[in-house]
Description:
With about 220 residues, this protein is an alpha/beta fold.
Amino acid sequence: MSENRRILLFSGGELGDWALRHIEDDDRLVGVDRGTLFLISRGIQPDFAMGDFDSVTPRELEEIRRACPRFDCVDPIDKDHSDTELALMWAIEQKPEEILLLGVLGSRFDHSLANIQLLIRALKAGIPARILGENNEMMLVDRVAELAYDPHFSHVSLLPFTEQVTGITLEGFQYPLHDATLSMGESRGISNVLQEETGKIHVKSGILLVIKSKD
Length: 215
């Protein structure tokens, strides 16, 4: 079993008290840039803080330094990766059982889209990863995934993350698919609904972006 059951990354996008309900006792918490301030402002000490911290004031940065047992500040200009990407790369190196990304969605659609694409890094590394937001939860599936019914996220949408995804079979959904193919530019996989306590998604080739949404 991995030393780190789960690693939670809190970035500087949209965060709120909803995010706190995802924290479990043995999780390892990482504050990414301003996401660190979100945690410590609620009395939660991150295990690690990292980023260029260009979105906090000098006073807030000092507060972060004092609160975090491990702190890594990178140059805001001389770097090839976003703060969230750097944090995800570090998390993957720890080989946890799962990585959760919070605060990676927001009003900057370019940042949100880039962060969604980061999920491919974890998929290639064989580590389950999810993006969690107040109204959406996202993951990538390239073989088999099991989804538990969640009344908070009533709709499940399947979008091709590669040009074509083949052999899609759904179990436990209102609108079934059997050995189906979805291609980019199609909306056929939008707004399905789980009818059972758990549902399964099977894929033969390609990658699906699975989005659970609050209606």
